[in-house]
Write a structure and sequence with these properties.
The chain is an alpha+beta fold. Helices cover 34% and strands 12% of the residues. The strands form two sheets. It has a three-stranded mixed sheet, sandwiched between helices. β4 and β5 form a beta hairpin. α2 runs antiparallel to α3. The radius of gyration is 16 Å and the shape is globular.
């Protein structure tokens, strides 16, 4: 089987439409990939795996009924930690916000959810997004997967 974690949104949606694989299978592949690289690349600040699995299950059921809920139904995405997800810690890489949990979603997150996207995790960011490297006093340095002596960039 193709590495589902490497497919584009268009390829995923085509696979769901053809019933080649499901949103639950794709989400599990993405979660496995995130867990595999986290120890060496440090890409995640906060995982949202429980919510992702629930959203993927709902999307899988919708696709099984041929009634996908939105243009991105079942597509796994990650959210930069600068963007608020209601009920999920959002520290924006800033020590002063390390325990902040917003009550509401940012507009971009609302739109992704309405489109049926599956939110998998919050990704690291530099403090308040103010520079071009991915190093945070809260979560550390995110490494570039092609050259681990470098950061992934801002």
């Amino acid at each position: 089987m193709t590495d589902l974690a490497r497919l584009s949104a268009i390829q995923l949606l085509d696979g769901y439409r053809r019933k080649t694989f499901s949103p639950s299978e794709a989400t599990e592949a993405v979660i496995a990939a995130l867990e595999r690289v986290q120890p060496t690349l440090n890409v995640m600040v906060t995982d949202m795996f429980a919510q992702a699995r629930a959203a993927a299950k709902a999307a899988t059921e919708a696709w099984a009924r041929d009634a996908p809920g939105g243009a991105l139904c079942g597509v796994p995405v990650s959210i930069k930690d600068l963007v608020y997800v209601g009920g999920v810690r959002g520290c924006a890489g800033a020590p002063i916000l390390k325990d902040f949990v917003p009550a509401v979603d940012a507009a971009a997150v609302e739109r992704l959810k309405r489109a049926g996207a599956v939110l998998t995790c919050k990704t690291t960011t530099c403090e308040s997004g103010y520079k071009l490297t991915a190093d945070s006093p809260v979560s550390g340095i995110t490494r570039n997967p092609w050259d681990r002596t470098k950061t992934s960039g801002g």
